[in-house]
Amino acid sequence: MELKVWVDGVQRIVCGVTEVTTCQEVVIALAQAIGRTGRYTLIEKWRETERHLAPHENPVVSLNKWGQYASDVQLVLQRTGPSLSERPTSETSALVPERGLFHQSLGLLSVLSLHISIKNIFSHVFHS
């Protein structure tokens, strides 16, 4: 299945997504494809409503719950900050998670150490 995700105002298509694919896997695939590190979250947008998806959630399952409105829902990749390795040490010692936000740190090592099966799931074929 193809999953459409907006990245920096451009719609990208992630191929090979299934009902068991997690948001974290989608975020890692997108960050690797665009060559960026940092902390990201997937946001589900419908009209004036936004919901941050948890890393363990399945975006396909979430979209299916919208029923007839699923085609009106947008998934947006939002960078929420630098990766932990990019932050100054004084800032990392005082980290307090924001309520309701799910951050996924994608430092260079995590992007490079992707398991081979994840690479096979995502073909990294994107269309504008």
Automatic annotation (TrEMBL):
Signal peptide per UniProt: none
GO BP field: signal transduction
Domain Ras-associating positions: 1-82
SMART domains membership: RA
Source organism per UniProt: Electrophorus electricus (Electric eel)
Pfam (any one): RA
Protein name: Ras-associating domain-containing protein
